[in-house]
Amino acid sequence: MIWYDEPADDWERHALPIGNGTLGGMVFGRIRDERVALNHSTLWTGGPGSAGGGVAGSTGGYAGNWREPRPGVLDQVRRTIAAEGSMEPGAVARLLGNPAYATTGSIPGFGAYQPLGDLLLVIPDAGPVSGYRRTLDLRQGIAGVSYVADGVTFTRECFASNPAGVLVLRLAADRPGRISATIRLACPYGDISINDGKIVVRGVLPDNGLRVEAVAHVSAAGGILSEETDRISVSDADAVTVIVAAGTDYALAFPTYRGPDPHEEVAKRIAAAHEHADLRAEHVADFADRFDRVRLDLGPLPEAPTSQALATYTGERPEDRGLEALYFQYGRYLLISSSRENSPLPANLQGIWNDSSSPPWDCDWHANINVQMNYWPAEVTNLAESVAPLLRFIESLRAPGRITAREMFGAPGWVVGPNTNAFGFTGVHDWPTSFWFPEAGAWLARHAYERYRFSGDEAYLREHVYPLLKETAEFWLANLVADARDGALVVSPSYSPEHGLFTAGAAMSQQIVAELLSCTLAVAQQLRADIVWQSSLARALGRLDRGLRVGSWGQLQEWKDDLDDPDDTHRHVSQLYALYPGDGPVPADAARTTLDHRGDRGTGWSQAWKINFWARLLDGDRAHKLLSNQLQESTLPNLLDTHPPFQIDGNFGAAAGIAEMLLQSHAGEIHVLPALPAAWADGSFDGLRARGGHTVGATWSGGRATEVRIRADRDGRATVRAGDVVVHLDLRAGVEIRQNVR
Ligand code: FUC
Q1: What is the position in ligand 1's atom list of the atom closest to the CA of 497?
Q2: 463 located within any domain
Q3: Which of 348, 370, 371, 601 gets mutated to test ligand 1 (max ligand atoms within 8 A of its CB)?
Q4: CA 320 to CA 465: how far, in whole Å?
Q5: Which single residue of 43, 455, 698, 735 has CA 20 to 30 Å from 600?
Q6: CATH of the domain at 368
């Protein structure tokens, strides 16, 4: 439970997020003017139908998207880099960028994620308020409010149910006849009509003609309900329930990105959602089933309001442990709420929550770290089904990505760059320091492979993972060039995200391509597929620069030439990709030196990444220091991560980092408590997942594991390491083994 003793003032800092993976709300908990800011994850401007965006339904694409032929220009850039060693980002952007961006400041038709509107309640004054409490129950997925006024205890609960596909707000009191409220659904996309207790908004997004429908169904127990032209009022009721459903005709379907009119689905959900008690019970069962899979005990949870626990947090006091565990579970809560097996789109830069029509970075999917980081906790914290919308999204990028690969790179396969939208944007803009990162596709593909590694699902490997890896590898095989310096195969042009010069063979490019080609080859061998092609993969791998060089001051080089500045504290530490999320091996001393120089500060996501790096370097104290910095410097009172502004990747990255401190499984064994900080002397966890299909728990005291618990999905053997102890276990499917560690 996170909780506050005052209502929310500000959407970004105070309001509390709820969501069913698609429909989201930010609950303010205000006493007399309640606001639930609403979102629907598919509500995007841009794409087919928008200005410069082509015709919805045509296959012609839209300006700035995938049709970007650049005959000869890529080679020109490669030749210049080969001759001169590097190029300024601005110079490359002038050649390879999309000029449409320079003139308009945004890509025509790229669009942005839009807010749906607000559920607004005006509640009559019941006199002075005492005992105000605003809560977010992470386990049940319920935002609550309670207070006493005029001797009456008023309560409110709000949740977004995945099984019912609706958001539910309930107002009640401990005395009959005390609930009165005027309820509005403020949604700017269409006209409002009222009938039969329902506020209905039906319209289109002016930008692209996307159809939107939202309904708020108001019902009261007792009292009088009256309908006005644009609102519904209830007076003197025992309780009021508002049920919201919403939809659009968006579909993740290239090239039209349109599906059925939302009306039928929305009407069906509203009609089916009846009894509040049933809806609540169904929601809690669904939510808690996911949440309860992982338990983490580092000490008692904070008793103070969460904002106060955060404000007084130093990381060094014993009572800080509870906030750290809460923050971990909050990351899981946010993933369950923003990404579910049936979500039409993956979690974006703000999950599914946005209150601005021009949100930061369009509230899109940045694929040079951010969207990947959103999914780092999914497997290890036992929320594997949350990855499904990301995997579908990746699939959906392949068709437009093929056109970009062909027209821009003259290459087979598919490609996507550093940002993409809900409409298959696989092209580029031309902001010099952020427009180029074709490695994004390969980085995304690793998530499908990880799905296999955690699940062991051979059919999934054969039918989905291998075709994706293969097509991604085909793109990269065609895009490697022999380096003039040493003949090794390198990526060119290569740009270490948002940093430095364009060169050939930057560390991150090489590490990502090396990882892609090696796992593609490993899977091809395992499946006995494409025997002849396997040898071209093996040959390329043999000649590939691996991007792991130790430089003049002992650092892991970010570029193939030793260009690193020891005073540089840039937030992206891209040269450590192979350390995390990659699987190494990396020169550990050089990685440490790099991290020491980059420092322990940075944007929220940057600090979160560093928790994972230090966990992989088995330095629990340093990982903990980064966690504590993130909580002190990059966390808002509602525990949302701030870049600034609010950006959810840091929440997810930190949850993954905490899991990585407790359990690692990337190196072929199950390593329990690999990076336990001194501050976490005693504790226990259960339910984390290890690759190979294992569910793992552990108890420790005095900084040493005392018991490890393992349950395997399938019969088999596993090697388990805890401290100096290594044991080989024979495991039977579904049977938990409890192993004492001495
Ligand atoms: C990446 C980062 C920025 C920001 C943006 C959304 O490009 O470099 O810091 O997080 O994504």
Answers
A1: 8
A2: yes
A3: 370
A4: 42
A5: 698
A6: 1.50.10.10
